[in-house]
Every structure is written in C-alpha cells, then in structure tokens.
C-alpha cells in the first residue's frame, strides 16, 4: 500500500496561484487520492464470500487449540446400543471404545476435554482418568491406523456384532496387546455430534445409535486440555527401550499356591508388554545377575530392534516372545544391579534413535549384591554426568515384591528423569509393569 505521506508530498508541489494550471493540478491530485482510497477499500476490506472462505481455517485453528465451540460440538458414543457408561471418563477407560488421535479428531478431543473436566470437578476419579489417558496414548497414540470418523463408523457397520449394553470393560494390557497385533475392531467409537449427524443423514437406515453419558458434563479449561494433548503426543512417540530382568536366585521364590515363582509372574508381565508395544517401537532384552557372563553381570538376549524388523524368519516381536519364555533364574545367583544398570544406560545412550523415547527398564526383586561393583553414589553421579540433554535416556525401575530396595530404585530412576514403581504383591506385577511403560 502506497505511503500516504508520498501523496501529501506530491500534492504539496508548488503551483501557480493564478490560472487554470494550478487548479487542474489540485483536482488531479485529489482525484488520484480518491482512486487509491477506493482501491484500498476494494482489496483490503473483507467481502462476504472471503469471510466465509476463511471460516474453515479459523475452525481448524480453533480445533487445534481445543476450542469446543468450533471443534465439532459435543462427542457421542456410537455403537449398536446405547452406552452404559455414566461418565465420559468411563468411556475413556472402556476398552471397547475406539478413539481417534485427539490432536486431529474433534470427537476424541472433546471426549478428553469432558473426561478431564469430570475429574477436576470430582465427578470421576482423577487418577483413573489420567492413567487411561496415558495408557491410550502409549498403546494407541500415533501407531494405530489413522481412520476418519466415517471410516470408524463404517467399520462398526461391517464388523461389530456386540452391543455395548454391558458395563464398560476396563483398559487392560491383554486388550491393548490384541489391538496392537491386529485384533478385530472394537464395538464402539467416539465421533463428534456434527460428524454423526452428517453420517446419519446419509445412512438413515443404519443400526448404529449415538448416545452420551450425560449432557451437562463439564469441560476442561484450555490450559489443562493443551497440557493433556501435549502429554498424549509425547507418550505417543516411539520407544527405543532396553529391558533388563533380574535372574538372581530370589526370583525363584514361590509366590502362589500353584507354585508360580516371581520369575514366572515377571515373564508373564514381560510377555504381555511385548504384545503391548506398537510395531514402530524398538525393544531389546537383557538378563542379569552377578558374574553372569564372565566378569559381566549381564547378558544380551536380544539387541534393540524395531518390533516389525525381520529376525530369523519371523519378527523382532516373535524373537522377544521366545527369549522371554526362555528366561530362568539361577538358584545361587546374586543381584548385580549397579553395574548392569550403568551398562544398559550406556548401551542405549550410544545408540542413535532420533525421535524416540530412549528408555532403560530394570526389573528386580532385590538389592545390589556385588561387592566388586561401583557404588551407588558413583552410579548416580555417572548417570547424571553422562546424560545427553538433547536426547536423554531415562531409566524406569520396577521393584518386584517388598524385598526390592525401593529407596535405591527411586534414586536411580530420578537421576535420569525416569520413574520408579513397586509391585508389592504378586498380582500387582503385571499392572505395575504396564503402568511403568505408560509413565512419562
């Protein structure tokens, strides 16, 4: 746009005070200014059709920021029967309900907003809601196939025969593992009201129905929703993880009436976890005890590779399943915790895995029993000093039974920004292991 000052300068040129030439120049200058102003009005003031054409982008921008008023309206649960859930948090926790990616899917985003609002308002359990969000992000995240609302609805029509009149099924490692390995589609999905209305208008004879747990659910404020969406996106990033499992003698302790040992339950939890990880995750397995491999306290069973990688005629997932099943404990073995932890940390630290959550997961039922190993203080110092601030490696520790050194495991995890978890009873091992995988 031309500088108005330029016109004033040009219009200020001295002209003769008398005669038609001065008057003519004045009128020409004024006419030029009028034309420029008219052109500015035509091109700079939005017209009706331009304003309308801008609305979709504005809506998309609002949807990305979690604005419920433009993100497609309220969410609805679609299935062959009405949902029996009484809260949106319960819908979030229902393993029968398929979601989209909340950053892109209006219905899922609004479901998350309402579940968070209920948790903050006291209508739903906050811890259960947060755990469900993390579990969904970790096991589904950006690894699940990207399906639009229409595609998910069409899948329900083709594949779903089960009505969702029963109580919602809690999210579980087994169900997540099934979903990761290509199990049949779930029996319900969440879409926005606008998406359902559009679908229903084209398919008036559909057997699907849309319902909600209630019409007055509170929604999360924008800051809380954005935090949840960022957390989801972070947890959805692929893992690059090395799992180290204690094979010392104490892992042979019987913990069940059927004779199951700590190792048996740990193997079951690890097998579930192998199925839990999406295809794009990379996973490897070590076992450890004192002087397991010469002077080393650890042995690599499976190097870290993507679960979809080809290995000996199968996949990395197949190989890990076999290696987990082959795990045994040494009756006279002692726990070489500190040296193993440092070695596993350095192993992952030196592996190139951009864009992955580089992680070491250590499972043990005891404390360090290796007089020749580094000290705890030296271990903690090395973990902090050697950390890569640009692509850090976090350590997640899982204590199996009350015999695990909870304080030490917590210090090790916190030194790397990781988390520590303890399964105090045998029946807790699987749940604690899965919770550890979905921790931030």
Automatic annotation (TrEMBL):
<feature type="domain" description="VWFA">
    <location>
        <begin position="240"/>
        <end position="440"/>
    </location>
</feature>
<dbReference type="Pfam" id="PF00092">
    <property type="entry name" value="VWA"/>
</dbReference>
<feature type="compositionally biased region" description="Low complexity">
    <location>
        <begin position="160"/>
        <end position="188"/>
    </location>
</feature>
<dbReference type="InterPro" id="IPR002035">
    <property type="entry name" value="VWF_A"/>
</dbReference>
<feature type="region of interest" description="Disordered">
    <location>
        <begin position="158"/>
        <end position="188"/>
    </location>
</feature>
<dbReference type="InterPro" id="IPR036465">
    <property type="entry name" value="vWFA_dom_sf"/>
</dbReference>
<feature type="compositionally biased region" description="Low complexity">
    <location>
        <begin position="58"/>
        <end position="71"/>
    </location>
</feature>
<keyword id="KW-1133">Transmembrane helix</keyword>
<feature type="region of interest" description="Disordered">
    <location>
        <begin position="50"/>
        <end position="73"/>
    </location>
</feature>
<keyword id="KW-0472">Membrane</keyword>
<feature type="transmembrane region" description="Helical">
    <location>
        <begin position="24"/>
        <end position="45"/>
    </location>
</feature>
<protein>
    <submittedName>
        <fullName>von Willebrand factor type A domain-containing protein</fullName>
    </submittedName>
</protein>
<keyword id="KW-0812">Transmembrane</keyword>
């Amino acid at each position: 746009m031309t500088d108005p000052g330029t016109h004033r300068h040009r219009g200020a040129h001295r002209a003769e005070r008398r005669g038609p030439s001065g008057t003519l120049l004045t009128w020409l200058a004024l006419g030029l200014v009028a034309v420029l102003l008219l052109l500015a009005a035509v091109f700079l003031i939005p017209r009706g059709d331009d304003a309308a054409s801008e609305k979709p982008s504005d809506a998309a921008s609002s949807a990305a920021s979690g604005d419920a008023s433009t993100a497609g309206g309220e969410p609805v649960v679609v299935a062959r029967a009405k949902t029996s859930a009484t809260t949106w948090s319960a819908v979030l926790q229902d393993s029968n309900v398929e979601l989209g990616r909340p950053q892109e899917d209006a219905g899922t985003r609004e479901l998350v907003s309402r579940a968070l609002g209920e948790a903050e308002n006291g209508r739903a359990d906050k811890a259960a809601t947060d755990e469900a969000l993390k579990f969904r992000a970790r096991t589904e995240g950006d690894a699940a196939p990207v399906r639009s609302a229409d595609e998910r609805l069409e899948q329900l029509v083709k594949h779903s025969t089960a009505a969702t009149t029963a109580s919602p099924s809690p999210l579980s490692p087994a169900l997540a593992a099934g979903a990761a390995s290509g199990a049949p589609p779930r029996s319900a999905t969440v879409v926005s009201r606008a998406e359902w209305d559009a679908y229903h208008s084209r398919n008036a004879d559909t057997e699907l129905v849309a319902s909600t747990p209630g019409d007055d659910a509170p929604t999360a404020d924008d800051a809380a929703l954005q935090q949840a969406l960022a957390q989801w996106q972070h947890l959805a990033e692929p893992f690059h993880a090395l799992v180290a499992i204690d094979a010392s003698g104490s892992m042979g302790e019987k913990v069940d009436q059927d004779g199951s040992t700590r190792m048996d339950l740990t193997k079951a939890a690890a097998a579930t976890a192998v199925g839990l990880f999406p295809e794009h995750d990379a996973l490897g397995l070590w076992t450890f005890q004192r002087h397991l491999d010469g002077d080393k306290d650890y042995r690599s069973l499976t190097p870290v590779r993507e679960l979809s990688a080809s290995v000996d005629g199968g996949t990395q997932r197949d190989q890990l399943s076999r290696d987990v099943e082959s795990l045994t404990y040494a009756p006279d073995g002692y726990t070489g915790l500190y040296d193993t932890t440092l070695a596993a940390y350095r192993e992952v630290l030196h592996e190139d895995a951009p864009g992955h959550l580089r992680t070491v997961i250590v499972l043990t039922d005891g404390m360090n029993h290796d007089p020749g190993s580094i000290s705890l203080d030296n271990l903690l110092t090395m973990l902090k000093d050697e950390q890569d601030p640009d692509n850090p490696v976090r350590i997640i520790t899982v204590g199996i039974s009350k015999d695990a050194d909870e304080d030490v495991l917590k210090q090790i995890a916190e030194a790397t920004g990781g988390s520590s978890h303890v399964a105090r009873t045998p029946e807790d091992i699987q749940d604690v292991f899965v919770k550890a995988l979905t921790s931030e």
